[in-house]
UniProtKB/TrEMBL annotation:
Organism superkingdom: Eukaryota
Start and end residues of each Fe-containing alcohol dehydrogenase-like C-terminal domain: 300-356
InterPro entries named among the record's database cross-references: ADH_Fe/GldA (IPR001670), ADH_Fe_C (IPR056798), Alcohol_dehydrogenase_Fe (IPR039697), HOT (IPR042157)
Compartment annotation: Mitochondrion
Protein name: hydroxyacid-oxoacid transhydrogenase
Assigned protein family: Belongs to the iron-containing alcohol dehydrogenase family. Hydroxyacid-oxoacid transhydrogenase subfamily.
Catalyzed reaction equations: (S)-3-hydroxybutanoate + 2-oxoglutarate = (R)-2-hydroxyglutarate + acetoacetate; 4-hydroxybutanoate + 2-oxoglutarate = (R)-2-hydroxyglutarate + succinate semialdehyde
EC primary class: oxidoreductase
Pfam (any one): ADH_Fe_C
EC number: 1.1.99.24
Domain (Alcohol dehydrogenase iron-type/glycerol dehydrogenase GldA) ranges: 78-251
Amino acid sequence: MGAAIRVVPNKAARAVNLLRTVQYTHPPSCPCHSNPGHHHNHVAPAVNRFADRTSRRSYATPQDSSQLKEYAFEMAASSIRFGPGSTGEVGMDLTNMQAKRVCVVTDETVDKLDAMRQVREALTREGLDFRVFNKTRVEPKDYSIKEAIEWVKPYNPDTFLAVGGGSVIDTAKLMNLYTCYPDADFMDFVNAPLGKGRPIDRKLLPLIAIPTTAGTGSETTGTAIFDLASRRAKTGVAHRNLKPTLGICDPLNTRTMPAAVKASSGLDVLCHSLESWTAIPFNERVPRPKNPLLRPAYQGANPISDIFSLSALRSTVKYLPRSVRDPDDMEAQSQMLLAATLAGVGFGNAGVHLCHGGFESLLIIVLSAVT
């Protein structure tokens, strides 16, 4: 048998062998091809708006954990019941929650309206023990909220019920918070940098919110806004544990709003929906939280918040002029209340722009000047 003949590889074969050797002994350092999230000829993702903003790593310098971008978002909103006449069910809701002592929070104007009459009748019918705090201030200040907190402490309720606009609901949220943290300093939970921004790490008491305006969407959010008088600044507390347990949205409760109030609260819906829809995408935020508990209530626009924000924006454009012109247009009144709630879900998770407070006030001033 003759000896085997060794075939000398040509230049092409030697080049292929060399490339294969490099490939398996030295993984590619190209940022695209070494990125496990990179795929050629892939199907375009369903959410292109966010897919094209994925985090990019720098391979030339060490990673700084404080600069890692967010990669996830959470959706949090209250349970919502929507329908004319649903206010009358609140007594049964409180009984179902096994409430024994209910703190009802409202203001002096709403206390005289049909919404509070229905609430009193519903709670009395169920035999519930309740007390009413009706000294809530419109556009609450830190000192008015502290007064409300001091008022409620001796009563020691096990449930809260807020009946009114955003100022009432936000005041009730903070009364609930500091009832559950009786030893906390008031500034502990206030948003940084004005406050310490302490996270709410325990479950609060049940809170039912019944809005009587179609604007703030506070019945769905974990945010409570107030003026810090000493600093002449608008701030608040924001955490998903602050959100109401249930929001009862009854269009019959917004019928008596004056035209100017309907217009200004409707502009609130417009600002909330537009700003949350155009907010920074959630995966552009830094830093990435080290613990899910530290993920803020306002996380940036995301695919779910966009749905709520855009729907609210479209409804506001369509129904706000009608609701202001004709108080008997129940379709417009109902749709604006629904839009306020949808916008609340949107901005309650995505957040709004830095200019929100000032822009909103400017619109209201302009509106007042032309009406």
